[in-house]
Design goal:
This protein is an alpha+beta fold and 304 residues long. It has 2 domains: 225 residues, Nucleic acid-binding proteins (OB fold (Dihydrolipoamide Acetyltransferase, E2P), Beta Barrel); 68 residues, Winged helix-like DNA-binding domain superfamily/Winged helix DNA-binding domain (Arc Repressor Mutant, subunit A), CATH 1.10.10.10. The protein has 10 helices and 13 strands.
Length: 304
């Protein structure tokens, strides 16, 4: 099976402004929803308060269910149908008005009036404690600000190469998404959007008073299928660098609130240990292809 697209951490406000699509060719080609802020998304992770689901349509029992997921910036429709029986059961039976984390594929609908509306087709959802939901929103805010920083850098340095940006710790999918966002949304007020994120700060403020050990792992388990590469003959230097890379991932994951290793933090740790940016990127690719690492969420690593 092919590798599943990573899920982007986004707010409902960013989803509401994402109206550009990139359609793949062929029946099974992957399509993407592009936001003005650099997220090139096939799948997304959104945290907030999930309302009770409603049956849609007249069929009994209904084969389609819909709920509303609300974060401090807005609301997005969350749906599941008969083609996703497990997700539909989760959505239908979950208790009402509870903090939740939802992972799903994005769907863009345009009505006759031309107004676009984004919805999230559930792949998995999990009801979580409030502290866990806040931790996920905090990480979404951090990644959103980092993507805005990347866009600002590209606006001021349009000639910056992908290699240079990767060396600064920006993941390749972010770079591609940022370049497309600048091309397709040239008039977007990104400074205004940055200012509009302030309500998230108040929402997550309680995290400072919560011990890290008290915050449960906010991940929703998503398996990423990929072919396992045959083991290659490694030199002693390769083995040492591989061990250094995996150790950096473990340390970054241990020190994070969500249990993932942030790519930029891993690259900083490797640079401090003498593994240069280009070599670190090469090692990352090899470890992902070999099935030792995976990136289930853009910019986040974990051991496979």
């Amino acid at each position: 099976m092919g590798r599943r697209e990573p899920a982007w951490r986004v707010t409902t406000a960013e989803l509401a402004l994402a109206v550009e699509q990139e359609r793949g060719q062929g029946d099974r080609a992957t399509s993407y929803l592009l936001s003005p802020f650099g997220a090139r998304m096939n799948r997304a992770v959104v945290a907030g308060t999930l309302a009770a689901a409603e049956a849609v349509g007249r069929e009994q029992p209904s084969s389609f269910w819909r709920a509303r997921l609300t974060d401090p910036l807005g609301t997005v429709s969350v749906t599941a149908g008969a083609f996703q029986p497990s997700a539909m059961a989760q959505l239908r039976t979950a208790p009402a008005e509870r903090p939740a984390i939802v992972v799903g594929k994005l769907h863009l609908f345009r009505g006759r009036d031309g107004v676009a509306e984004v919805s999230l087709r559930v792949e998995a959802l999990r009801s979580v404690p409030e502290a866990e939901e806040r931790a996920t929103v905090a990480e979404t805010l951090r990644q959103t600000l980092d993507r805005l920083d990347l866009l600002e850098r590209l606006e001021h340095e349009p000639s910056a190469t992908d290699a240079t940006l990767r060396g600064l710790g920006f993941p390749s999918p972010w770079i591609r998404g940022a370049r497309e966002a600048l091309r397709r949304y040239p008039e977007t007020d990104r400074a205004g959007f940055r200012a509009s994120l302030r309500p998230l700060l108040g929402h997550v403020a309680g995290l400072a008073r919560i011990a890290t050990s008290a915050v449960a792992d906010p991940r929703v388990s998503i398996h990423v299928d990929r072919p396992r590469a045959p083991a290659a003959e490694l030199t002693e230097v390769d083995r040492q660098e591989t061990a250094t890379f995996l150790d950096a991932v473990d340390q970054a994951a241990t020190g994070s609130e969500d249990g993932y290793a942030d790519v930029r933090e891993v690259l900083r740790r490797l640079e401090a240990r003498g593994v240069a940016g280009g070599r670190a990127e090469e090692l990352l690719g090899r470890l992902e292809e070999g099935g030792l690492l995976e990136e289930p969420i853009v910019g986040k690593l974990r051991r496979a």
